[in-house]
Amino acid sequence: MSELKSLEQEISAAIEAATDEPALEEVRISALGKKGKISELMKTLGKMSPEERKEMGPALNGLKDRVGDLLGARKEVLKDQALNARLQSETVDVTLPTRMGATFDGRVHPIAQVTDELTAIFADMGFAVAEGPDIEEDFYNFTALNFPPDHPARLEHDTFFLPVDAEGNQKVLRTHTSPVQIRTMMSQQPPIRVICPGRTYRCDSDQTHTPMFHQVEGLVIEEGIHMGHLKWTLEEFCKAFFEVDSVKMRFRASHFPFTEPSMEVDIGCQRVGNELRIGEGDDWLEILGCGMVHPNVLRNCNLDPDRYTGFAFGMGIDRIAMLKYGMPDLRAFFNGDKRWLDHYGFRPLDIPGLVGGLSS
Ligand code: 2NL
After folding, report:
1. Helix 21-32 / helix 37-44 crossing angle, nearest 10 deg
2. Whose CA is closest to 359, among 253, 277, 242?
3. Which H or E run includes 103?
4. What is the pLDDT of residues 293-313, one digit of tens each?
5. Is any ligand 1 atom within 6 A of the Cβ of residue 180?
6. How many helices (DSSP H) and strands (DSSP E) are in the chain?
7. How much distance in Å is there from the Cα of 209 to the middle of ligand 1?
8. Alpha carbon distance 181, 173 (integer Å)
């Protein structure tokens, strides 16, 4: 009997000393498991005299029950302790500053930003984006666009020519994104509404010209399209892009081989100190060229000019980026100086959209 008492004390002490659930489980096995101390004692009951059994049976059962209760109670305590420790170590301090990293330190280049901005504006007017190769065939860059063979305009464009290939063909670096529109007209049926932003190349370099620059052209082909549609589209674009309620515009007669009539478009502006205000004022800024698609261009793309008309326009993305965001030198756009990008670049998660301000 006194042996049972000291066994109970020994087991109770072990239960109290267990500091986690695995340790407690070991104590349980050593007491109540198949070969545990209490279980072994239970097995001896069979060999006892009836008198001994009468005394030891209830005593052992009592011990087994009390040890079971102690184990259960200790298990609850240890569970609570483990949960509290987890809550302590896994707390989130929502007042900490956001973590900076590559995603946040990087900047979006103004060309990418402005391309996204104008894409959002034209997408809202139902335009799709079309793309094409930078290395073009003469046909798409010049011939289909109504440049006569050996016309000086092919040279005026300061074209980069590639070496003549085995078949005697000479490819060029596209001098404008118009070839993308030619490809669109040859592969799709009207109604067509596309913008074609992308890289273009001309052999020219000074403060406002780089050998590689960016252009966006727009093209609409549909029955009944006229200059009113052209004017409205460009006016809406200018207001949305420069984020002003109204914009003064001037259409001057001009000439391109691929449009008739052709126009250059100026917007009103005013210089106030160092700042350039767009939309009003007595100065003019040239921002784009446009016109009604020349019937020859439609014919070259197998479209019937008696059925379809269309308008087209083209502008320099780099140039309108400089106007909107005030960079003085185009060359700095492309020489990869990180200090310039830190200053003029855009935060990567400020994605341009028409809701909430284009360039917030
Ligand atoms: C400018 C002038 C212009 C076009 C581009 C075009 C394209 C096709 C047919 C007719 Cl496929 N026109 N594009 C038309 C007028 C002007 O760009 O000064 N760009 C910077």
Report:
1. 10
2. 242
3. helix 102-105
4. 999 999 999 999 999 999 999
5. no
6. 13, 10
7. 18
8. 16
